[in-house]
Please model this.
Amino acid sequence: MRQVVGYHRYDSAGELELLNQIWASQILLTNHFGPQQKLVSKTRNGAKMTKTYDIPKTPFQRVLDDSGTVHKSVKTRLISETEPLNPAAI
Model:
């Protein structure tokens, strides 16, 4: 969040409301359009560490790919939330 709004002190009610709006937009941008690599495994061979990463996916894609723990109703709500999103507008 500090990368988006900076390191200034925000202590008024108007600034808090603005930060909450920025936070809501930042969550959508990060979860739907920001791919991340997840660490799959780490192996040590002497002093050398070898790391293996999964292919980059957004958190939204990872939820849709999950077959067991996320209910279909949650997935359909997320899909309907994603369709009107425009990353340039956010």
Notes: The chain has one domain: 2-82. The chain has a mean pLDDT of 85. Residues 2 and 8 are 9 Å apart (CA to CA). The longest strand covers residues 39-45.
